[in-house]
TrEMBL record:
Residue ranges of every copy of the M23ase beta-sheet core domain listed in the record: 194-292
Species annotation: Solibacillus palustris
PANTHER family reported in the protein's UniProt record: L-ALA--D-GLU ENDOPEPTIDASE, PEPTIDASE-RELATED
Record's protein name: M23 family metallopeptidase
Alphabetized CDD domains for the sequence: M23_peptidase (cd12797)
Keywords: Signal
Superkingdom per UniProt: Bacteria
Length: 312
């Protein structure tokens, strides 16, 4: 009986997720045009949703769209009515808020008004990638934010959908491996530090899979991690794969990868100059880092690995 309830709940959750995706896509497509593609709008909305989930100082926006404008930006810095919704007076005081659905009101709480305002802002800069980056810089004033939103836009454009939440355990089926929660354990090489990740022990040459969709941000040698790959996904997460024996021949910096794609092979490199290997048993060091719009920090990947392993 419990199994039946779990199946029903899973189906309901899937239906709800698909409905949310459809609702968001409706807005993105509604306000795109030949200058502003839907994935630019979707990327900004996804980024805003990401930071609202991890920042206590930013309220979670109600509604389908997560984009939030400040009252000052929306109504104008000199507007005596902080929450002004009258288009003419907003324009008079230099505010950016617009009426996106023709109801005569420009409201921060109306998803159509918000999306129309963001589309109009982007449209002022042009349609190229560099135009998009400049618009993001002028709005957020943070290079890492610009890079993160650009990554999200690339992923949405490449796969033609915002539904990229699939995750894979980094070691394929039918390979022998073992791992445990080693977060925070002491590490001594290179100075006293803690272990920021989970070690998955496996044989030399065992394939390593990308745990998510993402863009290859770094690839190459690191004296701590040896041959390593860093992949950034559309949830503001950075996935770090270290101590590799080698990379897959098809992988290079800037590439877009799919969840479950082979990116490299287990080794024992690191703890020294380029090419150093064999100072410890072969294993994959897997780390997760989250960017909140201001800083990036490591968090324990062990619970996520357990969940992905069950889904194998």
């Amino acid at each position: 009986m419990n199994i039946g309830h779990e199946a029903i709940n899973a189906n309901e959750q899937q239906d709800t997720k698909e409905q949310r995706i459809q609702e968001r896509m409706k807005y993105y497509v509604q306000f795109q045009d030949f200058v502003i593609p839907w994935y630019y709008l979707a990327a900004i909305d996804q980024y805003e949703r990401n930071i609202q989930q991890v920042r206590q100082d930013i309220p979670k926006k109600e509604g389908v769209i997560a984009i939030q404008f400040s009252n000052e930006y929306w109504a104008g810095a000199l507007n005596p009515v902080e929450d002004d919704t009258i288009p003419n007076s907003i324009q008079l005081f230099g505010g950016m808020g617009l009426d996106g659905n023709g109801d005569g009101v420009a409201s921060l709480d109306d998803d159509e008004d918000v999306m129309f305002t963001m589309a109009k802002y982007l449209r002022m800069y042009g349609h190229g990638v560099q135009d998009f980056k400049l618009a993001l810089w002028d709005y957020y004033k943070n290079e890492q934010v610009v890079n993160q939103i650009t990554v999200i836009a690339k992923l949405f454009e490449k796969f033609g959908t915002i539904d990229l939440d699939a995750n894979y355990f980094p070691i394929p089926k039918n390979y022998v491996y073992s791992y445990a929660g080693t977060w925070g354990a002491n590490r001594g090489w290179g100075g006293r530090r803690i272990h920021e990740g989970t070690d998955i022990f496996a044989n030399y040459g065992t394939p390593i899979l990308s745990t998510s969709y993402g863009v290859v941000e770094v690839i190459g040698w690191n004296e701590f991690g040896g041959w390593r790959i860093g992949i950034r996904d559309h949830h503001n997460s950075y996935h770090y794969y270290a101590h590799l024996h080698s990379f897959d021949d098809s992988i290079k910096q800037g590439d877009i990868v799919e969840a479950g794609q082979t990116i490299g092979y287990v080794g024992s490199t690191g703890y020294g100059k380029e090419g150093t290997a064999g100072k410890f048993p072969p294993h994959l060091h897997y780390g997760l880092y989250k960017f909140n719009g201001r800083t990036e920090w490591a968090y324990d990947p062990y619970p996520s690995l357990l969940r992905w392993e069950r889904n194998k």
